[in-house]
From TrEMBL:
SUPFAM superfamilies membership: P-loop containing nucleoside triphosphate hydrolases (SSF52540)
Stretches of the chain forming a coiled coil according to its record: 475-509, 540-567
A Pfam family that the UniProt record links to this protein: AIG1
Protein name, per record: AIG1-type G domain-containing protein
Keywords: Coiled coil, Nucleotide-binding
AIG1-type G domain ranges (all copies): 89-233
Polar residues bias spans: 1-29
Compositional bias ranges of the Acidic residues kind: 47-60
Region named Disordered: 1-62
Superkingdom to which the source organism belongs: Eukaryota
An MF annotation (GO) of this entry: GTP binding
The species this protein was found in: Mycena maculata
InterPro entries: G_AIG1, P-loop_NTPase, Sigma_54_int_dom_ATP-bd_1
Amino acid sequence: MHLALPSSTRETPVSNDMQPLTLQTTPTGEASAARASLGVSDPSSPFDDDVDDLADESDFDETRPVLNTIEDLKKGIVQTKDKGRSEYTILLVGETGTGKSSLLAFIANVLAGNSLSKYDFATIDQDNERGVSQKESQTKYAKLYEFRSQNDIKVNVLDTPGLADTRGIQQDELHKKGIATEIKEQVTTVHAVLILANGTLPRLSVSTEYALTTLSSIFPKSLADNISLVFTMCSNPLSINFTDDAVPPSLETAPQLYIDNPLSLLHKYLEMKANGQHTRQLRAAREHVVSSEAAALQTMVRFFDWLDDLKPQPTTDILTLFNKSQTIQQQISNTISQMAQAQDKSEEIKRLIRQIEFGQADIDVYSKFEQSVETKIWRHDPTDYHNTLCAAPRCYSVCHELCQLDFSLDPEKLRKCWAMEGFGIFFRNATKCRVCQHPVEQHAHWRAVWKEHDETQISVDEGMKAKWESAKDGKAKDEAALEAMRQALADVERVVERKMVKLADLAEEYGKMSLSGSFSAHLERGITLMEMHLASSRESNTDSKQKKRLEENVEELKRKLDVLKKANSIKQGAKNLRKGWDRGWDLANRAIKWTTGAGPTAAPAGGK
């Protein structure tokens, strides 16, 4: 879907010392007559024949009134239908390197009424711009800017760090948390979300696919009508390389805007001029900057017209969705932990079973069995502050409670944590934790602590225990113990299944709220992205520590995705079982009614 172009035609604005270009054209009818006079048949030209079709194209409503104009925007004036409306709030999001901050600066200059020759390059917080490699997010953290048009319309713009940062998925998770925090503290309603993508890309790159999928997963369906795709570095649909099939299904109906930012082009032009570029090249570059400004202002006309028609949406759904994603992440970690603990219990019970079967059990075998099944459970308990926790399998260490470092999901930042070897020693690079002795890379900040709980995964069947105690001889005792232990093994599996179903329920709730309709989609894209970074690091001179960290990131994401898929599979199996049960009961009722004439009976609760 494309935003409607305004019907009125206006002279393209140019600077005083530049003459507008004029194209000499021959009317279609005259050209046809000329060809006919020469005895040349009039060929069927798609370019000529589609004129009438385009006039009827419903996507371009020629009767739609244009609220804003280029002339007004050049003066910094934003028109609104509702004269009582005085404020808009916009979110700028997208992949790293798509020009979010540059677009923000351009919008600021438009609202200030700055002409091309008076563009201000310092309209945004330069301290929040890294100025490093384009592969890393230039913007350090989410920041809300407040601008005012020359007719006192307030425009709030939340600038955000780019996704698909080469520093890893943890960095993106940190960026998402920062965005949620800024929204929670500063933004109550949002009018529009602009998702930026590089329109010059010939195909959907892994990082772009990851960014678009992730963005469609973090925004709720309630914002569907308030989202627009902005293709940067191209001024119109003809110059875009980004194909329609590259857009995720959840964003296919979003209006599309195109902008080749004149602020960025002006910056490049001034660099060319400072470097003594040839005059002819400078003239061509200057003309391109001028024409790009005209096209960009036309895009702003379309944008502000669209913006004025939107109903502002509360940000509560964004925050609810983010909190739900955090709950799912924590539930996945707990499930992985409890699966490991359940596996340990299963192995211990199987070992006791083997002892009985091979006649190696001693008189205390049942006591050992009771002890093994009553082991306490470790899980994350939420806290209001962040702590350094170990994530190594079967390690439940709270290595530094109330860590004083800034919250980070990047293990590299945790080398400066108090718990790490080398803390306080100048220039020493910590490699492992002095509390649990596991590598730094296996640690992370959590707003939770590992805590041991009294709840047991399974309980000893008192009837089985009495049967074992009343047995007269060793063989009878062994049989009673084996029966109890085999039942306990089945109990372990059921406990894990219950945890899995709970996790699947959370993921399903998330999917119903989010645009993408899936929690696992961005995990899958994240794995693909990290595998690409890993392959690239293996081909380059990347140090071994970074390669190892990338490998661990990939494995961790795969473990999480595997758990989520198993959870969904178990839940689907339970649904199918219930459907089969209900179907069977329905057939039985029909048979009873047919043979006896009796009314139907309700299915027993056991079918659930």
